[in-house]
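Lab notebook page, bench 4
Experiment: in silico fold of construct C2
Operator: M.H.
Input chain length: 146 residues
Purpose: comparison with the prior construct
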Amino acid sequence: MAAQQERGQPPFLIRRLTAEPGLRARIETAERLGVAPRRLDGWEPAETTVYEYDAGRLVRSVTVREPEWSEQDRAWMAALVGYRASLCPCGCGHPAEQTQAHESDGRTFVVPPPVRCRARTALVQAQAQYEDTPQPEALLWSVERR
């Protein structure tokens, strides 16, 4: 991946993961499932079996299977690690090079108004009724839609 690196820029695959959320979701899905990205796309490894006979009698068979993880698949996983390492450690989800840039004074980012989660609101209200019960932290909660 070092050959792909340009001056001051992350490697090409990391830049693609940063710029293309759909691609990043595909690579992250493969990671979560523990399969190579090309396997997620429907690829199946080829298998070849060679049979050896002696006087018409099978004496040996050897099956060779194509490896699951290609060099490209491993590069995508390494790029995913690099992409995650490039994010701001505060957890905002933005690239650290943007959030921590000295020329950025805070006006570079805009915070839209919050959106309320109605399920969480109902949960917090229900939990408040049990604050004075013994060991309220031991209560297990769920939220269901009517």
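Observations: The chain has two domains: 2-106, 116-146. The longest helix spans residues 71-85.
Next step: discuss at group meeting.
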